[in-house]
Design brief:
globular; 89 residues; mainly alpha; 67% helix; 5 helices
């Protein structure tokens, strides 16, 4: 039986976070601004982005919502890319 990677080390999780970081930067949101919008601290965002703290699913939804509002566009492409990559395996 193959040992499963912890979520934080899973390549899918890392791709997801890379997409979130890219979108945050496209939205010109600093870590501090995003943290304030989603009820976290800037160190929380930093730890999440450095894979030192796991992103909770509710926090994920909150982040996508705030980034989407700032960009004024749908961020479903973040899910789409992960889904398509997973289906190819």
């Amino acid at each position: 039986m193959t040992k499963r990677l912890t979520t934080i080390h899973d390549p899918r999780y890392r791709r997801l976070l890379a997409n979130i970081i890219k979108a945050r930067k496209e939205a010109a949101l600093s870590q501090k601004e995003l943290a304030s919008l989603v009820g976290l601290t800037q160190p929380d965002i930093s730890k999440i982005e450095r894979f030192e703290r796991r992103l909770d699913v509710v926090e994920f939804i909150d982040m996508l919502t705030q980034i989407s509002k700032r960009l004024n566009r749908d961020l479903s492409y973040i899910w789409q890319e992960l889904y398509e990559h997973q289906c190819k395996q």
